[in-house]
């Protein structure tokens, strides 16, 4: 309570509508005032909990997200991560020595930098006394990095954590075949020339066939696009609906880009190339053009196409998380609180991409909020079909009762509050980095549009999912 | 072949296919009685596409009955006559089943070959009409579609028509049998099965529309059938009569070798194909319907249909649902049997403890389970991930930890009564009250095992057959004290393990071992009389046994055979005599235990396919040689000496009430002991060939050898009244 009090008081002098709104909320015990123009009332005034540290996002940045194979193609993952980290240092001017810990998420690991967090931190000029580790949880790796940081701060182990994520799909580790590797390893151990020759004599041409990183779910051998197509069919999502949704994502992203709303992007001078300042995957097209595309996974009658799926992306993000009192003591003006979060998991075959459906009601219940309390939704868009299937699942009592063990549906998010600045379909989806982008988009949208609560949700390979409530930091 | 073709299903896939010339989805539609209201088929129109839904009432599957056929023709005529309809989709409303094949009951009801021929010809006419349909028809198939055929003329099709095997949908696509595959959907806004069928229909309707609008061409990608076999060269070669003759010859040889001439159907199919190619398709169709009619009337057909019905019966739990579902199973002894039982349990999702006394024994058993599962991965029946998940249901251990949670314990320790007593007492000290104790033994009476039990109502026999993962039969043995719920529980577990189950009364050798023992005794005598094991094997296999008699002894294990023969010999005395047990005893003492020790009647070597006779057995045989009796030593007599002893003992089991029904006797003999399937089992054999003939033979052998061949009372009763049949 004290925190709110201070914040509110601090904000009182401000003349903006938002300050008014918060002060009103503070006083909102009176029913008369509840009808104030500042917006609808919330189930809870804040999600602060007694005896739990408030954790804030001071700020977050990302490199522009580029289609893989473009300007970032000659970099290594830690280069991109470094760019995000230096960008964060620059943006926040945080003294390096106060950073207690650094956590990065990534999915496809570059074998040379398997702890990419540490390599990037060293290269970005962070103190070599700051430990760093890397986490991986498919498309919610950055979310895992953030919530790991939240855990460290909440438990009092750290005060200042940098969390982020990186993915460089322009270059992926392609390995020798197992047979070839075995022969090469055995050759290392062979002592005499005879032993070596006998090993080499076992060489067969097929040893040279390379091994690519798996694109398919390990447990089911099904590619994610294939599963998304089946999911869309299971929920009877039509091709047209999917194309329309994708078009919406691209159009909104374009608008946000043009209006300069994507303020979390930091310019990155790529060595030997121009400075990159803009996402390059935003391509609003027309429904006619999109309709011409052939299905990418289930041929020839599937509905998931290149135009209504997220594309392979290079990019990195980073975020400065602190205990609120520390941030205030250092004179920061935080952007948002990180509140309740959940991780969920379900059948990786038929419900691979339904994470948001399972996570949303759970996190709302945990926070004591309802869908009506949420002002902005930021969901990860893996495929149009996946988003729309999730909408239908969230809006179905039958699904809630038969598969989620709930009495009623949670309801689908209203579209006017949903991914208003574009999403992974248009902005791009560097697997390990998307989580931070979602949280920053939610925080920035809350600041810009004047809401209090944001809901971030994402699905991930392995049939997992995540949701977190972001609460706007009072101005 | 009918029976084996009428069951089974396509795997998790659904598929659909565009009918075009020379492609059949299902045959044997029949046409006769027209019904006013349609109960099997209805159709609706979506745009300009007619959707024909097949749904046989009160049945889990759709079968090709006369009613279904006539309704289908009615509907098709309406569709062809309608101006509004431009294409059609054929789909089943039953999840997982399109059309399971011809209605066996319909075929069985036919009294003459002509009737069956008529049915077949009606079907051909229907198909001709479908083929010539000007409106495209798309068949949307989900689940089993059997008996549905391939057209003649492509050599690759031979194999499939002949063995009647079930093709997985993805394979069918590769072979060019189906045009598109639709994978099953997960949960959406409706139950997955329901939505999958709906989706299949949607996709099929789109295709039908596309075909009618000429947006999609019915020409498919060349499947394997075309690419591999109908390259221009082969197509050309097939036009040369000489080459064709060679191909027919090869195929016939192969079929002869596999069926030993015991199954008439495959050879007739070749005939039909030949006629079709040589004399044109009309002659081919005529020949097909006639041969089909003839085949349906054969004894083989009746025997196999009988087996089919028996198997359906033995796949049901007539003891009702057990009070408590078995979720945790424990298997004692990680030997061949124990590990086998564990394997068929874990892959059905049962949490199974495999306990052995030694780490080496346990490790061997765990490896056996893993190998069994891994072989499925190699055959692509399982993914490596599924294998790992299944394998995680298995816990290997040396102690009784976790037995307090076990719902059932199956012991498969060595066949030694005192050892079985020891484990029974140990186990009863740790298991909960409701836990069933099942003994896997092939000969020890269950009541003797149960004698030391504190709770004999919970003790039951579960006799599995080796190799457990391949042999379908499970013989469940109840004592007088075994409770009904215990039996229900054992049957439920057996069914879950995918077994065909017979329930028999306790007694020495139960049913299966008891039938086998006198036959084995005869095997030994025949060997002693100088017939060499190879010759004996070929005599038995040419009679229809899947495994030769000498090989069978090696497979079972010479020591086990000896053990059983000694035990049962003591109980049954002279009736089980014949050959000298000395032969087995000497073989055991020399370490010739059969396949497991690498040497028995044959020598077994890893990777060597053609096994050689073990010449060391010759000297043993020579020392035990008996003079053959020429009047009963012709090849046929040797075969019948074996079979009649088997059959006589089987009838004896029915007489004594060990068997509850003849059907269980037939299923037990065919599925557990390899009694020739073309004969349908001992009781069907008696019905079809006449009990009198068998009694005559028994009398003849009785004259030569005495009491061992005396026909039992029940058998002579049946022989003396020719109208009396085991299957009425």
Characteristic terms for this protein:
heterodimer, A: 475 residues, alpha+beta, ten-stranded mixed sheet, two-stranded antiparallel ribbon, 12 strands, 37% helix, disordered N terminus, B: 728 residues, alpha/beta, eight-stranded mixed sheet, six-stranded mixed sheet, 30 helices, globular, FA_oxidation_alpha_subunit (chain B), NAD(P)-bd_dom_sf (chain B)
Provide an overview of this structure.
The complex is a heterodimer of chains A (475) and B (728). Chain A has 475 residues and is an alpha+beta fold. Chain A has helices at 2-11, 17-26, 31-34, 77-92, 116-123, 141-154, 178-189, 193-201, 224-234, 239-258, 287-291, 324-329, 355-367, 384-394, 397-403, 424-427, 434-449; strands at residues 55-62, 66-67, 101-105, 132-135, 160-168, 268-269, 275-276, 313-323, 336-345, 374-379, 453-460, 464-472. In chain A, the strands form two sheets. In chain A, strands 1, 2, 3, 4, 5, 8, 9, 10, 11 and 12 form a ten-stranded mixed β-sheet that branches. Chain B is an alpha/beta fold. Chain B is 50% helix and 11% strand. Chain B is built from 30 helices and 18 strands. An eight-stranded mixed β-sheet of chain B has the order 11-10-9-12-13-14-15-16, with helices on both faces. A six-stranded mixed β-sheet of chain B has the order 2-3-4-6-1-8, with helices on both faces. Chain B has a two-stranded parallel ribbon with strand order 5-7. Classes of the chains: A alpha+beta (475), B alpha/beta (728). At the A-B interface, helix 9, helix 14 and helix 15 of A face helix 7 of B.
């Amino acid at each position: 309570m004290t925190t709110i009090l201070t914040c509110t008081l601090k904000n009182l002098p401000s003349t903006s509508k938002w300050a008014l709104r918060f002060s009103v909320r503070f006083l909102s015990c009176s029913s008369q005032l509840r009808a104030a123009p500042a917006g609808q009332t919330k189930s809870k005034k804040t999600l602060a909990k007694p005896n739990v540290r408030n954790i804030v996002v001071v700020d977050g940045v990302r490199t522009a997200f580029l289609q893989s194979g473009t300007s970032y193609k000659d970099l290594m993952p830690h280069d991109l991560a470094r760019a995000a980290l230096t960008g964060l240092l620059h943006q926040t001017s945080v003294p390096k020595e106060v950073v207690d810990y650094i956590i990065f998420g990534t999915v496809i690991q570059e074998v040379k930098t398997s702890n990419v967090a540490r390599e990037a931190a060293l290269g970005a000029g962070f103190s070599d006394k700051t430990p760093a580790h890397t986490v991986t949880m498919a498309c919610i790796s950055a979310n895992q990095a953030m919530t790991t940081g939240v855990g460290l701060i909440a438990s009092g182990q750290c005060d200042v954590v940098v969390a982020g994520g990186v993915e460089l799909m322009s270059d992926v580790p392609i390995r020798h075949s197992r047979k070839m590797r075995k022969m090469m390893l055995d050759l290392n151990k062979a002592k005499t020339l005879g032993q070596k020759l006998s090993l080499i004599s076992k060489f067969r041409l097929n040893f040279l066939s390379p091994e690519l990183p798996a694109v398919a779910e390990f447990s089911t051998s099904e590619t994610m696009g294939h599963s998304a197509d089946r999911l869309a069919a299971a929920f009877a999502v039509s091709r047209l609906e999917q194309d329309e949704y994708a078009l919406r994502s691209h159009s909104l992203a374009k608008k946000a880009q043009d209006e300069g709303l994507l303020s979390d992007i930091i310019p990155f001078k790529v060595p030997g190339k121009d400075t990159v300042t803009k996402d390059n995957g935003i391509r609003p097209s027309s429904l006619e053009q999109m309709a011409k595309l052939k299905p990418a996974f289930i041929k020839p009658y599937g509905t998931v196409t290149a135009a209504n799926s997220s594309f392979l992306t290079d990019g990195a993000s980073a975020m400065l998380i602190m205990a609120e009192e520390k941030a205030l003591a250092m004179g920061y003006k935080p952007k948002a609180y990180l509140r309740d979060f959940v991780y969920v998991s379900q059948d990786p075959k038929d419900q691979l991409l339904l994470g948001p459906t399972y996570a949303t009601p759970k996190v709302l219940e945990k926070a004591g909020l309802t869908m009506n309390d949420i002002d902005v939704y930021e969901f990860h868009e893996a495929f149009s079909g996946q988003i729309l299937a999730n909408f239908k699942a969230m809006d179905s009592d039958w699904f809630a009762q038969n598969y989620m063990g709930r009495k009623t549906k949670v309801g689908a998010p209203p579209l006017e509050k949903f991914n208003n600045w574009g999403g992974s379909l248009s902005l791009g989806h560097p697997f390990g980095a998307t989580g931070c982008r979602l949280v920053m988009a939610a925080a920035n949208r809350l600041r810009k549009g004047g809401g209090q609560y944001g809901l971030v949700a994402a699905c991930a390979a392995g049939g997992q999912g995540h949701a977190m409530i972001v609460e706007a930091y009072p101005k | 072949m009918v029976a084996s073709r009428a069951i089974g299903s396509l795997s998790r896939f659904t598929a659909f296919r565009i009918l075009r010339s020379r492609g059949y989805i299902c045959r044997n539609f029949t046409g006769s009685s027209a019904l006013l209201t349609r109960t099997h088929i209805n159709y609706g129109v979506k745009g300009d596409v007619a959707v024909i839904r097949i749904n046989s009432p009160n049945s889990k599957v759709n079968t090709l009955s006369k009613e279904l056929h006539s309704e289908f023709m009615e509907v098709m005529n309406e569709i062809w006559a309608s101006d509004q309809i431009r294409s059609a989709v054929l789909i089943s409303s039953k999840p997982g089943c399109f059309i399971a094949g011809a209605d066996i009951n319909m075929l069985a009801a036919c009294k003459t070959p002509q009737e069956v021929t008529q049915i077949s010809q009606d079907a051909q006419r229907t198909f001709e009409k479908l083929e010539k349909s000007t409106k495209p028809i798309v068949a949307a198939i989900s689940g089993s579609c059997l008996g549905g055929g391939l057209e003649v003329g492509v050599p690759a099709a031979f194999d499939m028509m002949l063995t009647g095997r079930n093709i997985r949908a993805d394979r069918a696509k590769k072979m060019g049998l189906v045009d598109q595959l639709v994978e099953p959907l997960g949960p959406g806004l409706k139950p997955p099965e329901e939505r999958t069928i709906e989706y299949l229909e949607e996709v099929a309707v789109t295709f039908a529309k596309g075909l009618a609008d000429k947006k999609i061409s019915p020409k498919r990608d060349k499947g394997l059938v075309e690419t591999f076999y109908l390259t221009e060269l082969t197509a050309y070669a097939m036009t040369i009569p000489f080459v064709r003759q060679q191909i027919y010859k090869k195929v016939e040889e192969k079929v002869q070798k596999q069926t030993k001439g015991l199954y008439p159907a495959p050879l007739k199919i070749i005939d039909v194909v030949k006629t079709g190619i040589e004399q044109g398709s009309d002659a081919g169709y005529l020949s097909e319907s006639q041969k089909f009619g003839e085949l349906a009337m054969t004894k083989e057909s009746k025997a196999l249909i009988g087996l089919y019905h028996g198997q359906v019966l033995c796949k049901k739990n007539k003891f009702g649902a057990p009070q408590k579902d078995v979720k945790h199973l424990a298997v004692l002894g990680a030997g061949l049997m124990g590990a086998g039982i564990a394997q068929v349990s874990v892959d059905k999702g049962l949490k199974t403890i495999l306990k052995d006394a030694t780490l080496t024994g346990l490790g061997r058993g765990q490896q056996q389970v893993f190998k069994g599962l891994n072989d499925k991965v190699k055959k692509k029946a399982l993914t490596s991930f599924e294998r790992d998940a299944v394998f995680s249901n298995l816990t290997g251990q040396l102690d009784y930890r976790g037995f307090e949670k076990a719902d059932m314990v199956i012991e498969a320790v060595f066949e030694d009564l005192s050892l079985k007593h020891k484990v029974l007492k140990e186990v009863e000290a740790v298991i909960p009250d409701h836990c069933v104790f099942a003994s896997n033994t092939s000969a020890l009476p269950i009541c003797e095992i149960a004698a030391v039990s504190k709770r004999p109502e919970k003790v039951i026999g579960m006799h599995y057959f080796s190799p457990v993962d391949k042999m379908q039969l499970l013989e469940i043995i109840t004592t007088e004290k075994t409770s009904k719920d215990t039996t229900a529980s054992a049957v439920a577990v057996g069914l879950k393990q995918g077994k065909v189950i017979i329930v028999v009364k306790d007694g020495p050798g139960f049913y299966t071992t008891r039938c086998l023992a006198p036959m084995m005794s005869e095997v030994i005598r025949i060997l002693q009389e100088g017939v060499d094991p190879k010759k004996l094997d070929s005599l038995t296999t040419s009679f229809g046994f899947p495994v030769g008699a000498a090989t069978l002894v090696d497979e079972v294990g010479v020591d086990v055979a000896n053990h059983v023969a000694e035990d049962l010999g003591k109980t049954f005395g002279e009736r089980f005599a014949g050959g000298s047990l000395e032969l087995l005893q000497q073989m055991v003492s020399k370490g010739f235990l059969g396949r497991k020790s690498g040497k028995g009647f044959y020598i077994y070597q890893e990777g060597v396919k053609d096994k050689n006779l073990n010449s060391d057995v010759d000297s043993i045989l020579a020392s035990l040689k008996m003079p053959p009796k020429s009047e009963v030593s012709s090849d046929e007599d040797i075969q019948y000496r074996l079979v009649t002893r088997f059959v006589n003992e089987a009838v004896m089991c029915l007489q004594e009430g060990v068997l509850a029904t003849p059907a269980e006797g037939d299923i037990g003999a065919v599925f557990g002991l390899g009694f020739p399937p073309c004969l349908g089992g001992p009781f069907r054999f008696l019905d079809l060939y006449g009990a009198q003939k068998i009694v005559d033979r028994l009398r003849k052998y009785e004259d030569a050898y005495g009491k061992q061949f005396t026909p039992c009372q029940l058998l002579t009763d049946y022989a003396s009244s020719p109208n009396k049949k085991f299957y009425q």
